[in-house]
């Protein structure tokens, strides 16, 4: 087993999943403001300290994705976040993309940036204790979107990122997110997700990315939030697994879903229903952001008397997801 394969398996096996706590400074600040907390480097640090020091988190979480700011910050006891995670048996991951920007000639579509200097940044993060990385591409549905050029540009960037990570010793989480925004049907999401994943695996192959050393982080197949469709949990689970069976090679060790704006409970139910669809060639787990940390942030609201209750809220979501694996 290669070192990359071993890390990838650790990320996705057992009952554990991955916690995405890597919101950019802008996104994190907006989420803090929404719950009445003044966004500063210190409040962002304290909030992340609350998350990672949740008791027994390592029982349900194998890895935590951090943003660059957090990666360089310290806990109250003086340990850096990656040092602390290593001490408690959780892998430290790093988001290395620099965000999705308007695609030239198609401002309603996005291209994720961050390839410049990535080889050197990967080396720095490895030195500081990272074992895996994340890059998120976003694909929009609506009107003529997604265009072929948006899909190709995004999977090309994902494949180049994945190659650079593997060369430097990090397992890349490869995240092509088909967004839930819009009024498209579940069928349209299925069609677009299938096309994106097919194109992605062609490109990963072209770039000689070792599939046994990645973790795929896709969206579930769901209708757009404005569609009015309310599919059953079983219908979402079945559509998602059918798409993955059609497109994801069996050499990929694991698939860790994003939650994408689904409610925490629904995301967990969908994950649980997929596990019941019989033997699958890859591990299926969670790499949720909002569906794991949303209730904790709402509970904390910057008030330290809510600290333990907020940690309990995170713990409950993580255990609920571990329980359906
Ligand atoms: P959500 O689960 O909130 O979609 O976040 C996952 C993630 O890491 C997005 O890049």
UniProtKB/TrEMBL annotation:
Family the entry assigns: Belongs to the class I fructose-bisphosphate aldolase family.
Record-level Gene Ontology MF annotations: fructose-bisphosphate aldolase activity
The keyword Acyltransferase is annotated on this UniProt entry: no
Record keyword Nucleotidyltransferase present: no
InterPro entries membership: Aldolase_TIM, FBA_I
Biological process according to GO: glycolytic process
Taxonomy of the source species: Bacteria, Bacillati, Actinomycetota, Actinomycetes, Pseudonocardiales
Enzyme Commission number(s) from the entry: 4.1.2.13
A Pfam family this chain is assigned to: Glycolytic
Keywords linked to the UniProt accession: Glycolysis, Lyase
Taxonomic source organism: Amycolatopsis acidicola
Pathway: Carbohydrate degradation; glycolysis; D-glyceraldehyde 3-phosphate and glycerone phosphate from D-glucose: step 4/4
Reaction equations catalysed: beta-D-fructose 1,6-bisphosphate = D-glyceraldehyde 3-phosphate + dihydroxyacetone phosphate
The protein's name: Probable fructose-bisphosphate aldolase class 1
Transmembrane parts of this sequence: none
NCBIfam families listed in its UniProt record: FrucBisAld_I
Broadest EC class assigned to this enzyme: lyase
